[in-house]
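This part of the workshop introduces the protein records we will be handling. A record pairs a protein's sequence with a compact description of its fold. As an example, a complete record with its sequence and its C-alpha cells follows.

_____
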Amino acid sequence: MKDRSTEFAMLLNEFLKEHKRVEEQAREMREQKVSSNKLTRRVETALTRLHNADR
C-alpha cells in the first residue's frame, strides 16, 4: 500500500501535467485568435477593394 505522501506526489504530478496542457491549449487558442483576426482584416480589405473597383 502506498503511503499518503506518495499518493499526494502522484496526484500533484498529474495535476501539474494537466495544468501545463491546459495552459498550452490556451496559448494556442490566443495565437489562433490573432491569426483569425488578421485573416478577417485581409478579407475585409479585399472585399472593400473589390466593391470600390466595381464603381
